[in-house]
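Example 3.2
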Amino acid sequence: MKRIMVLLAILFLSSASYSRENTDSLAYMFIPDPASFFNGAEAAAKMLRPGKVKGGELSMSMGIMLGDPGFHNVRKDRPVMCLVMKPSAKGGKPGLAYFLEAAKDNAVRFIENLKQMKFICKQSGKLIVFARSDGEVSEAMKSVSLYKSLSRTKKADHLYLSVNIKGFMNFYRPVIEMYLQRIALQMQIKPMGTKYGGDAVNDKNSERLIKMAKVYIYGLYEVMNQCDSMEVGLSFSGESVLASTEFFASAGSPFARFLSGVSPGNLKVNNHLPENGIYSMIYSCNTESLISFFDSLVLSAEKRDPALSGISKSLYYQSFANLRNWWNGDIAYTMGATETGKITFSYVQSIKNRDDALKYIKEYGRISAQYMSMLSQNGKGAARLSLAENSRTYRDISVSRYDIDMDFSSMSAEEQKSVEKLLGKKFSYEFVVTDRFFASSTEPEKLNRMVDSIADGKGGTDFVSMKEFGENYDTYMDYDIAAIFSRLIPALGKVGDENSARIREALSKIKRADSTILFVQKSESGSAKGKLKVPLKFFSEVMPIMSEIEQGKPMNGGKMKQGGFN
């Protein structure tokens, strides 16, 4: 029996990727194969800064820090670990310790180099553990088993990071609480309306905005209190950087229950988007779990600060909470931009009940109009929201429209020009509500295409992230950085015509797959697993041009317009 257990343990360790380890440390960074890590990181650095990075530069820099520039005394094929240890006192400074293996017969020489650099060293076989104090080294020696365990796992990433969030919060909670109290006091020193010479209405609006800001800050803090740990794996592959993440909520917490909620898993709403724009997203969740989680955060904020009493019963929050009655849990969204840089939006959401959805949309519009007025100063600068019901019909489906009239009175002429380029003088979006979907777009032609797709059951918008990672996730995001730059350049401000044209030409040659940041995530069993892919082709093509523009270097043998982006 004992032999069988040993065999099972060996099989588990050799086949598993990095798993959560039992450790009292606050965090650790683990590099399974330093040579592979240096090669991958330097390849990425060369893509980011063409012609600026030399081979071996990164490993030499780390070697210099260790007193061994050529890595003659250290094994580059054996793991390196950096350990962040708990402070000896509450709110104190964390300790740092380093683990690596010395090259054959060079341990003594390496230790002597470290001692000259004022490090304290201890040895466990070929493993060298060093830190700045005897106490830190002694504490670090308790984690030798962690190093050995990680060394036996499958080398899936070039770099691996584990953060004990609960440990950080336990030690630094008094400090964080002190800062929260200080922020709360500063928020109440003087209402914004009075500060800017406003009247009682503006004072009341300022008070509401301050309450919203407090709920956000307290809510974020409460989320951190409900976190257990986070793990990140980083890999360099060809012309991209891939990060894998796993986030664990504390067992039994409202956050864990939210991450355990079973989503509809439909993800078919993207079939009704008219395009995959410069930024697109699909999200699926369990609506009841989501609202219950937010309820817990708001109630926690009310309990912490008596001034927030009644927020959970407010019309604005209850309107949000009513999502549980009509939203089915799936949404898809895309943002685009015209050739002149004007922003466009399209959005589709699955619904449970058409009547409840219509009621919510109208109610939310009224509340949003009220909150827009809060952003004004002495009645200036606030946009005005109005609803035009049944403004037109398409395929026997009623189309309504929200209009947002911009108020430019508090802007300078230059600011007004930029906003008009991005949003127009009047920002409008149409919407329809069918038995199963709520769809909206700033472009009537695109909304018509969405209605066609919903009515005919045809269509579909391909996401690069879905092709890359498959269809087993709750969240998908495509972020086309080349398209964002090329489409929004006309609205970014004063850009020389030649510079702008040159950048746009370079961007037009980059394939979407080489310029799109991809992200996916799936929540289950109290944790959220995600993957992020960042292509480097965009940076290698554009950064040299941007650098030349900033330096004012001549291009194409002529004189470059000075100023670049102002």
